[in-house]
Amino acid sequence: MKLYLALNEHGTHGDIALHTKLAVLSARKHSDLDIKMLYIGRRNEFTQWLEQHGVEILDQHLPYYDLIKRLSDEGKYNLSTVGHWLRTNVCLTTNDDYVFYSDIDILFLSNPIGLEQEPSYFMAAPEFKKDGWNYFNAGVMHINVRKFQETYNEFEKYIRKNIEEKTYQFHDQIAYNTFYRGKWEKLALEMNWKVYWGANKEAKILHFHGPKLGAINAILSGQWNWNNEHGRQIGSIFAQHISSYRYYIAFLLDYIDELSHHEREFIIDIHYRMSKDFDISRYKPDTTFMNFKMFPED
Hints:
Elements: E1 2-8, H1 14-30, E2 34-40, H2 45-52, E3 56-59, H3 65-73, H4 82-85, H5 90-93, E4 98-102, E5 106-108, E6 122-126, E7 136-144, H6 145-166, H7 172-179, E8 185-186, E9 193-194, E10 205-207, H8 213-220, H9 229-240, H10 242-249, H11 261-274
Parallel strand pairs: 1-2, 1-4, 2-3, 6-8, 9-10
Antiparallel strand pairs: 4-7, 5-10, 6-7
Helix pairs in contact: 8-11, 10-11
């Protein structure tokens, strides 16, 4: 089966690039998935690394890129979101019956068996809470390509309209949750296991949902900005589940030999500091936002 990832050139540097490398290396170790990268941007050293590790780069054109670019030029939207929206290109890129999609901030922990199922549209797991099926996380999806192809034109119209009208209040995950409400099926939690859900030997795909390595490093270094809503939320997830992050960061050490010297030292340093006592209580973490429900009923 094919695994589709998506990225624009903005994500070929920093911790997004590092997470992508870890996703690829772990997929190669634990699965026989055929990895494809949906990509917008110039080729560079990072895309060369992907190709050297068996990833096929598929240059893309996002059909509604001009809309996002115009709104970005007007200061109404963030152009860096293009990589997230690229997931909608999966059904435009392949005629396979079923494919697997994931965000780049995942780590394969074992072979993702269970993909032999045939979803009516797609399968997905909850966003924050393990029992929170009211609102799904689109970071890992098992997709029925033909059903997506049948609905794509209407989906794109819906996307264009809402990006234009709602701008910053509208993003790809909201689009999927609202447009396909009632049409998706439950994906096993182990296929999109969030780091903050705790140690789980049965987890197959680990998702660094929320705090990424760059944020973790900034928090541990005392350089994280807690003075805005996004900063407080990301910091609070880490602070209230630090033991889970300590447990899973150790898994990254399995892949450091295939990373650059800088990336290797970066992970080793985070792992070392995670092993030490870290008093984060002074930041008064609050994760009540994780009780979010998009719809009035499940």
